[in-house]
Fold each of these.
Amino acid sequence: MPRDRDPFWDHVEEVDGRWKCKYCEQRFSLKVSVSRIKSHLSGVSAQGVEVCRNAPAEVHRKAYEAILSKRQKLMSLVPIRDQGQASVSQEMEVDTPMLEQLERLDRMTTDMLEQPQAPENLLV
């Protein structure tokens, strides 16, 4: 059974043999993974992806939540230390700067939802 199509593909369109963000002029290879699209839309400057400054706040929030959800799911798969020795998968630490940015974006999103502000305040 094939996977469901990721809804974040709806935020790009094919133009001249490349994906183009519907909110800005950022272009991606047709071979790009949806995770790079999510990073672009999330408003978090990380992973070497240019941040989209024109996407609506709701798109920023949903992309951020999708990234955070994936990270939490991956971290739940890391086994607990067994007799004081870490497994190989446990040694793969969370990218601290990325996690800090995600937490910062979470606080900013929460503040924004409580007191509506301009979407550019969401970007980090």
Note: The longest strand covers residues 12-15.
Amino acid sequence: MEKNEVAYPAVIKQDKGQTVIHFPDLPDADVTDADEQRARLRAKIGLAIIIIDLESHYEPVPKPSSLQSVQNRLGKGAQVEMIETDLSQY
């Protein structure tokens, strides 16, 4: 099976003992979890599921914003990183 990798910027923060991962381009893929590693795994899976769902309904999939543009909007203190997932795994 051929890989179909995508990457979207995510804002990662800690809030009341929870790891919150927010995708500005695809907020339906946002996750919150007490365990950071599990939150990151769920974010990858959720990102793939949301994109696949949009594609299956012939809805437009937003292009990912650049990491820099999200960082600029939020300021230097925000933790922003690209979350990658392989759509062919789902």
Note: The beta strands are 5-15, 18-22, 31-33, 80-86.
Amino acid sequence: MKILIYSMVIVLLVPLQTTLLPHVSIWGLTPDVGLAVAALIGLFAGELEGFVVGLAIGWILNMYSAGDLWISLITKGGVGLLAGLFGQHVAHVTPTVVSVGLLIVSVLSGTMVVLTMKNAAGIDTWWMVQSMVLPQACLDAVAGAGLFYLASQRLAADRVLMSDRL
């Protein structure tokens, strides 16, 4: 049953990310919903499922983008793995904690993409980080916190809200 649900989520992310979100972009930036979904699956389901689903999300979304394949696979899979590990070691995860984590991961991911560009000079790299990566990371953090809030209200959040571990 989980495989069917994860498959549906992955397949529905493609039209959401490629057709719907560009119409609600802010300053030409759209949130990376795949990054947020990989983190949420890692938090709610565990690090292994977060890693595997994150890899699948990175692969399927990269088929519809012009980026390098390995960067998307590494970032989405790594976010799912890190979120699963984070969910095991933190007693009470809140939307604020999720947004800060997604902000950090999104900045690192965007910076890695900028640094792997072949024609980026030092000044161009700083300009891209300042004008595109940081606003994109803020948008990803807000989207991830909102999705986490909605998911924690709708789902049984026993894995996330584990104050009895202390």
Note: The radius of gyration is 16 Å.
